[in-house]
Amino acid sequence: MNLLRRHPVAIALVVLLLLTAIHPLPALVDAVTGSAPGDADLDRPMLYVIFAPLSDTLDAVTFFSLARAVWAVVVWVLLLAAWGAIRASSDSLSWRRIVASALLGPLALVALVVAALLLPRPVPRLVSDGPGTVIDYHAHTNASHDGRPGWTLAKLAQWHERQGFQATYVTDHNVIYDGSLPVPEGTSISLLPGVEWSVYRQHVVAIGRVEALPRDSFGESTARMIRMFAVIERQGGLSIASLPEYWRYHEEELSAFVLGGVDGFEIVNCAPKALGFPSDLRRQVVALAASHDLVVVGASDNHGWGQVTCVWNVSHPGAQGFHTNRVFARPLALVQGDWQAWTAPVTQPWFMLRSLTWAERASWLTWVVIILLYRALPRREGQAAGLGILARSLGRRSRETPTPVPNQTPT
Ligand SMILES: [Zn+2]
Fold it and tell me: How far is the CA of 160 from the centre of ligand 1 (A)?
């Protein structure tokens, strides 16, 4: 009881880590069948597992749909601010310190989001036993208007290589990558030619050696837009309807896409706007593609932000049609479309914890114990020897006063 009163957060975390182990989620889900694949798995580097609480949290921040991210940030900011303020006022601190304490949690949250976008870190990679190429069908460089500045082909290639990809199409917005540039030094990734055309309420990923086309002539109506599929085919390329646009604007017109000659559909796309794609619609699109022998693909849609992809493809090079490509996604990404946005502050950590392997769970528990020891021991034994300066300074700080505000520091 004493432990529970002193460390409610740590105890709640331990209970959650054990509860979520009862019904865990697989590392990967086949987005077509909905079940875990037997011939593909995620390989997590040692450092990723050692720092699992940070690694898993940053992955979970990366795999938010836009609507769920907004809810999670607003609710967590309010809760952390209230918690900080209540803690400070129960210690009867001045109002300035109460405000400082209330800001601490929200600032930590902002730091976490920035770290998810920018911090280089160890990442999981796909390992596949079966035949085929691990490939990405849709990714951007700084040649796109919304690509991260400085996000060169070389950086894109390294990003893919770290995660187990062997090849990626380079599909910048309305800028053709013709595949003629040499493979960047230090990587073995094949960079394949492609483009992402913006046309009437739809983005069309064209892969292969495609050429420029009069993009404006495919504007203003769905009927005009779908004529682009035949043009891409005549150029020798394949056309793939991208998410989220066909879900947002053409949900009722997908059979017209098929009649127009589209070669495939994205069924998973890791962009925050596309991650909310619901499972029932994914099943409908998979059924449509299967009945017309069209390809279904996953797309990182990487623009240079974030360190991890939510999806990989294993494809048989040269083949076409429904059975030539398999799509393996992280389960946390797939549930984004199935839960109401307002549940995100609770369901995001819940599904993250359910996705942990036993090694990651052991790492989380170890970190909880380490932090409890650092916080508890000096408190019990005063200036306890043996735990080092960090323990003593942490203990002293938490028992006495918070760090002084800089402009109040005596000079
Ligand atoms: Zn894109």
Answer: 15
Task: Provide CB contacts within 8 A for 343, sequence distance 6+.
Answer: 71
**Which residues have a beta carbon within 5 Å of ligand 1, which is an ion?**
196, 301
Q: 230-248: per-residue pLDDT in tens? A: 999 999 999 999 999 999 9
Q: Which of 365, 372, 375 is nearest to 15 (CA)?
A: 365
d(CA 346, CA 322): 37
Residue type, 41: D
338 Cα to the center of ligand 1, angstroms: 23
* Angle (deg, nearest 10), helices 344-354 and 8-19: 60
Q: How far is the CA of 236 from the centre of ligand 1 (A)?
A: 21
DSSP character at residue 177: B
C-alpha distances in Å from residue 204, one per residue of 19, 65, 137, 226, 266: 43, 21, 12, 10, 10
272 Cα–ligand 1 center, Å: 11
What is the 140 CA–ligand 1 centroid distance (Å)? 6
Per-residue pLDDT tens over the stretch 13-32: 999 999 999 999 999 999 99
- At a CB cut-off of 8 Å and minimum separation 6, what does 202 contact? 222, 225, 241, 242, 245, 246, 249, 250
Parallel, antiparallel or unpaired: strands 238-241 and 264-269: parallel
- Domains, the chain: 125-337 (3.20.20.140)
CA atoms within 13 A on the CB side of 297: 30
Amino acid at 283: R
Q: Is the pLDDT of residue 410 over 80?
A: no
CA of 139 to the centre of ligand 1 (A): 6
CB neighbour class for 33 (10 Å; exposed up to 12, middle 13-18, buried from 19): exposed
65 and 337 in contact (C-beta within 8 Å)? yes
Q: Is the pLDDT of residue 386 over 80?
A: no
- Give me ligand 1 centre to Cα 240, in Å: 11
Q: In what order do the strands lie in the sheet with 238-241?
A: 194-199, 202-207, 238-241, 264-269, 295-299
